[in-house]
Amino acid sequence: MAEIHPFRGVRYNQSLVKDLSTVICPPYDIITPQLQQELYHRSEYNFVRIEYGRELPQDTAMDNRYTRSAATLEQWLEQGVLMVDQAPAIYLHDHYFNYRGKEFRRRSITACVRLEEWDKMVIRPHEGTLAKPTNDRLSLLWACQANASPILALFEDQGQQVYSLLAAQEQSQPIISLSGANGERHNVWAITEPEVVGQICSSLAHQPLYIADGHHRYESALTYRRERRACSLPVSGDEAFNFVMMTLVDFSDPGLINQK
User: I need a surface site. Which of 22, 105, 122, 148 has the fewest CB within 10 A?
Assistant: First the structure.
């Protein structure tokens, strides 16, 4: 049911950005004004400048948080602060964190997933969406024409097929490895071997994906595609319009913690 593809990720150039822990930021919807300020001061390259930039009193239709995000993205690409990976990949991500005195690991993969309308039941929600956050993410999508952050979705790893494939990949050297001051750690691998990528995609192809976080990002991606079609702008064959970036986690992953 779900169509999964590798993609060429955009990531920080570690020869220029030495400490990656200073440039990561959480998703837009949990960034408070205070945290936004802290992230701006943490590094001139903190990703908050793209994900959830400041609003200014003098903002206009031509100069606002969204246009500044797009300008920052373009500037960082031109300066080599951000680089585009040479080969399409599915990205394996191990996130280690502490909860109630114990360390957990959440394992996920990030890939491109074909956009499907809600009524197809390929991508399934568990909550409704609101106009304001959807319009916010839509404005960012129109400005940057890129997914700034992935949608988190869950899948059922039947027979642990995906788990077995990923376990073999972690023996190689990660492309990203960082530790934060709060005890969190991140390791990321780029899976580029066509055979392994094909096996992962095939394992996920015949089941639905359940959105855990990112309903507004998904709704904005659907609206973006509809609006481009209404404007007679090309959409076929272009991953930016027909696909959305998703982080996929197995339902049984021990790193899925209910913190309520």
Answer: 105
47-87 residue pLDDT tens = 999 999 999 999 999 999 999 999 999 999 999 999 999 99
Q: What is the pLDDT of residue 241?
A: 83
Looking at residue 84, its amino acid is V
Q: What is the pLDDT of residues 157-200, one digit of tens each?
A: 988 999 999 999 988 999 999 998 778 999 999 999 999 999 99
Nearby residues of 210 by Cβ (< 8 Å), 6 or more positions away = 124, 126, 153, 154, 155
Q: How far apart are CA 190 and CA 87, in angstroms?
A: 9
Q: Report DSSP letters for 87-113, one per residue.
A: S-BEEEEEEEEEETTEEEEEEEEEEEE
pLDDT of residue 235 exceeding 70 = no
Residue with tokens 């929600």, as numbered in its chain: 125
81-130 pLDDT, tens per residue?
999 999 999 999 999 999 888 999 999 999 999 999 999 999 999 999 99
Residues 210 and 126: beta-carbon distance below 8 Å: yes
CA distance 30 to 45: 19
Distances (CA, A) of 134 to 53, 73, 138, 237, 243: 16, 21, 6, 25, 17
Reported pTM: 0.94
Name the residue among 259, 252, 249 with its Cα closest to residue 107: 249
Residue 80: phi and psi, rounded to 5, are 80, 10
- H/E stretch holding 177 reads strand 176-179
In sequence order, the 6+-apart residues with CB closer than 8 A to the CB of 22 are: 42, 43, 45, 46
